[in-house]
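Anyone? Bumping this.
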Amino acid sequence: MRGRILKESIDLFDKKGFSKTSIQDIIDTIGVTKGTFYYYFKSKQELLMDIHLNYIKELLAEQEVIFNDEYLSNKEKMNNLISLIIKNIKIHGKSARVFNREFRHLDDNQLKLINDYRKEFRIKLQKLLGEGIEKGEFRDDLRCDIVIFGILGMVNRSYNWYDPDGEVSEEELVNTYMDIILNGIKKEEKTALINEKIIENHFTV
Amino acid sequence: MRGRILKESIDLFDKKGFSKTSIQDIIDTIGVTKGTFYYYFKSKQELLMDIHLNYIKELLAEQEVIFNDEYLSNKEKMNNLISLIIKNIKIHGKSARVFNREFRHLDDNQLKLINDYRKEFRIKLQKLLGEGIEKGEFRDDLRCDIVIFGILGMVNRSYNWYDPDGEVSEEELVNTYMDIILNGIKKEEKTALINEKIIENHFTV
Amino acid sequence: MRGRILKESIDLFDKKGFSKTSIQDIIDTIGVTKGTFYYYFKSKQELLMDIHLNYIKELLAEQEVIFNDEYLSNKEKMNNLISLIIKNIKIHGKSARVFNREFRHLDDNQLKLINDYRKEFRIKLQKLLGEGIEKGEFRDDLRCDIVIFGILGMVNRSYNWYDPDGEVSEEELVNTYMDIILNGIKKEEKTALINEKIIENHFTV
Amino acid sequence: MRGRILKESIDLFDKKGFSKTSIQDIIDTIGVTKGTFYYYFKSKQELLMDIHLNYIKELLAEQEVIFNDEYLSNKEKMNNLISLIIKNIKIHGKSARVFNREFRHLDDNQLKLINDYRKEFRIKLQKLLGEGIEKGEFRDDLRCDIVIFGILGMVNRSYNWYDPDGEVSEEELVNTYMDIILNGIKKEEKTALINEKIIENHFTV
DNA sequence: GATGAATGAGTGTTCATTCAT
DNA sequence: AATGAATGAACACTCATTCAT
């Protein structure tokens, strides 16, 4: 029952927003009574916190798995991470949207905890970037924090517009983002492109 | 008075969120009574709509100015647009955050109108990109819509974390974003870099 | 309206008790809506506090008047005070019962304030007793605090059983209490005791 | 288990009041579940009734013992009764406070029964006083009912303020009360009464 | 004897909104 | 232009109680 309440709440919070979703809405959807809701959750806010914790903890766990794979370059890790985020939209898109939209309804203590987790995620990404720079995979003339904020902004926003059942495949989206992030959108001059080609060849060999 | 209500509402909606800000909060801040509020606004929602309209219309107007400048390349127009957005954080950050967070509280008709404006902004950007591609300024092997969504995600998110009074200057932020967008973060191989240099020289000449 | 709410609330709190009286009960009695109640009172508890403050402040004011009358002996002042309490049952009996029964529903801060006032009332009575002892009006071999607690217990309980419209007149009740109290705590002179007999004899004849 | 529930309930009802104590509070304190509570008690109100019945029945039984002691004068019986009440504060103070505060939460039938017992206790005391008057132990010019209400008010209130572990010993409290009461209602000796007249005359002049 | 999931009526409270003045 | 008393629907939440196991 607890699980069902969580699931339906996420649905409704995604569809209508936290403040416009009443406990009544939730229990009506499930077909139970108020008492049942409060048997499983102390308050509406605690339910929201639960959703947040579930989401960020799973995300951190998945991030950890990717980061710990020693056979991957930092570039590849970043690619996999973006892929992870995009591919999760289908399964966890609702949670993700709730997570990214409704955290303002948490109280101060809850918010602090969630923001610590958020930061943890960002800092790890930053470290990934930093290591990649040291290894010569990434440029060393950009502020890491800004770059990461930029990448996260770009990728995370997908939750708000990307339809996994639409005409753009997940692969194309991931590849496009990675391409922009790695190479930029500027058209290279001929010579540059040639060399780029060589590099690419050299690289993939 | 109307202006004061708008101003204080934006402040409060930014600080506490739309649903957690009551009319009472607003009028207490200003020091008037309920009747006054309803003399100037039909409803709380109409006030929110007003804020949205003011924001998006001004943004579109400023976009228009930049786009109509025939002395700028598309690359430069994009740079100026990003600069516009970042520099607006100091003056219009509150409005922007309200605009990007609270639109879910508009009713269907209002939301449709706002979304049309939003789309107009995005489509214009997309056209800018498209023209740039035709002129050879930008790569032609990426989907325009995805690229624009990516860029907007990256830049717009700044409203949520960027502190214009912090250690990063607006110029640095704009340049970093433009650099990532145009060139990417991948470290170029020597030969590539050399050619890049040439391009840059060629470019600035 | 505020006054009406106060009045009807006291009635209901006296009749049914604070916790069993709902806001709904109160507004139904008056014929207004919930909003009206909350326009005048921040909460049910604040209403209760208001009742308490009104009651104790008026009581203290009346105590003050009696105490400041310099033409009265301490014995007479005590008599007048008891008379005041008993005679108030008709007009303020409901308030008094609410005051003496429902204070446990106040929160800690409210309760502290009310208890300070309560204590003030008691301490003043104690001073009255102390002065009377010094002037030889009362016995000096009893603890003032206990005596006052005893007197207050005796007199205050009347709110719970005394019916001002019943067969016992207010005068008789006051006189009986004073008689019990005075002839108990009054310093008996040897000679005095002898003469008392004469009166009694004379009286009963 | 039944006993534990009773004990903890009295504790909680004394500390927080009946209406503010939930079944949940009670079972949490004991460490059992709701079912257990309802296995032993039909309802919360029945539990309250149980507490009331236990209390008043024991009190009546103890009253009975004192009253049936044929070696005691009525004066002594009254003294012992007051002593009984005061000394009980240490052991039964919580029950007594619950009994004197929470009876309003009983339903009509329960309340009627409890009030009958209460009355029985009072009437017996009144009879004790009446017999004492006949035997010349107490004054005969005061209404018995009022006197008993007064005495009970005085003594019973002790439950609300008297701390058996404080600086005033139980003996001192009992003696003070008895002193106040007895020397008030006690029939004065001949010689003593004669002198009173003189004082009074002297006084009013 | 004891569990604990589920009930559902009821509670205090909030708040956007109206309207006579 | 502005007031502020009054509305009333909605809300989050509580809690004594039931009952299948």
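Late reply, but here is one note on the structure posted above: Chain A touches chain B through 53 residues (CB under 8 Å).
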